[in-house]
Amino acid sequence: MLQDILNDIGIVVFAASGALLGVRKDFDLWGILTVGALTGVGGGILRDVLLGITPPTSIQNWPPIVVATSASLVVFFFHPAFSELRRSVLLLDAIGMGLFATSGASIAIDQHASAFAATLIGLLTAVGGGILRDVLANEIPLLLQPADLYAVPALLGAGVVGVGATCSSAPTWIWLVVGTVVATGLRITGLVFGLQLPTAPSGLWRRH
Hints:
Strand content: under 5%
Family: Belongs to the UPF0126 family.
Keywords: Cell membrane, Membrane, Transmembrane, Transmembrane helix
Subcellular location: Cell membrane
Helix content: over 70%
Membrane topology: Multi-pass membrane protein
Low-confidence stretches: none
Main location: membrane
């Protein structure tokens, strides 16, 4: 039950982040709904394809698309309530990333994936929708931006679920909550304090 709730919340916040980016890019109603819906369900589709769940749950059943579209419609009509669209997109993306990382890993565990596979699938579930959103909006994906910790928080959050659920007797919901807090918290901390991974030294390949 908690897994389903987290997955639905992840769809809502990711769809909202996609719709907000569509608003910022001056898309029309169809464009905003499209980028919002695809952002909301994109990671889940990738997860199901990797797990051999076909057709993917997000398109086999109507609720995920309806939830994502509804969230996008709310953003379309009420986006002025968000005082700063860029910050709103980043905050919603951080929450959605954490939720999808852990729910993706948990679903993989339910499909008898190993802890390692569940961790990677959780990571891909978390970043899939965001990459699709940014590509559609002609933005550099947050996953690749040097100024942001993105993949690492998702990987750690998914790893908490993957390792905890397979190596501990504690209920899975505990690891879902802990993993979500770890992933989202680290992502937001990185944004607030400007944490980032090192980049390649400049001028390393220059020869005189």
